[in-house]
């Protein structure tokens, strides 16, 4: 038996058939149960472990339908609309589900009905039963009130006035029921009978495109899985071409014969639908996860899904039949590195609209970096060359400016004569500047404009090393004296 704490007492939360044969029941106190049978075995409940097990079973049920939802702590909803013919019909699918769960060691009750409420009642009160459309009322009529999925308080109130079955509730006038017991009672009744729709919310997003292959003989080798990925990607290519799209996020699902499911996902920096390239990416991903994937007795179902897609731009080939794309090789290289080492393995700097140097560039994953959608414009032949060069920037920019001590300057607004940085004194021989950089006006108050103004200098010391430092604040601009910072080095 399994126990859990309810209030200040330990009570039975679940029990097996042998415990039921001893006339023990759920919610019975553990002290009373031990008084009746001192030799019983009791295990403390672990809700987190039960939740993980239920989620694992939900992943395994993806082999029947992608619309799988959790139902409380011990149930699953499967929306199999349009899927039963793939398994030989409703009875064949239900028998296959029950048989596979039985061989995995689970005692499962299943029901199949046109509505979620009727299926829930059939599974929990009738066992293995298929309800045909129109038979929902006949199914529910003899069942207890718990088959309507209503609160225990409502059930107790209904039983106190003599309504002990669902059929008795259906035969009673609706208006008095709604006034006395609330609208939820009629809502659950109408949902079970199909008068109102009840949506099943899947726990995982449904992929817009998926292809799968059922295997007569389970596979265990990585080479066989990669070969199947190539075959599935070839099938997927035609669907992507018909939609004019390419895959941006792909997921490979490997269903093991004993119920375990391995889910492998990867992203692409560009829309992709070439089976050869998709196979290369999963080759890298499988190589990185080879130690983590346990094939066990083998995988009997392999599915390749497109979780996210984007418009696929066709490139024009030249007279030789080759397509010129300068960034394709770099994108494929980055995707393969990311597939093996993770999303953060390849980063790319992206310009940000900010005057401050430490804010002007952001480091983002390669797949999130913006891509040029139109080719750059070619300059006109008669256009005069530009004579204004952008200001020189250091090779290494510090993540955060470091404070330095400046004992003296040539003039109040001029460069320092020497400075102390990291406990070392440097003598300045050459200096260029200042280059004034101010923060964005919307980031600061008007009173702080002078204090946040920076004057940058390119400094060379006596040994030829070059630095990029700045003075923050203006002399006479505020009560606080200006401060000096080191922001980068040139070499």
UniProtKB/TrEMBL annotation:
The keyword DNA damage applies. It comes from the Bacteria. Pfam families: DUF6504, IMS, IMS_C. Residues 408-488 form the DUF6504 domain. Its cofactor is Mg(2+). Residues 209-304 form the DNA polymerase Y-family little finger domain. Its EC number is 2.7.7.7. It catalyses: DNA(n) + a 2'-deoxyribonucleoside 5'-triphosphate = DNA(n+1) + diphosphate. Keywords: DNA damage. Monomer. This is DNA-directed DNA polymerase. The lineage of its organism: Bacteria, Pseudomonadati, Pseudomonadota, Alphaproteobacteria, Hyphomicrobiales.
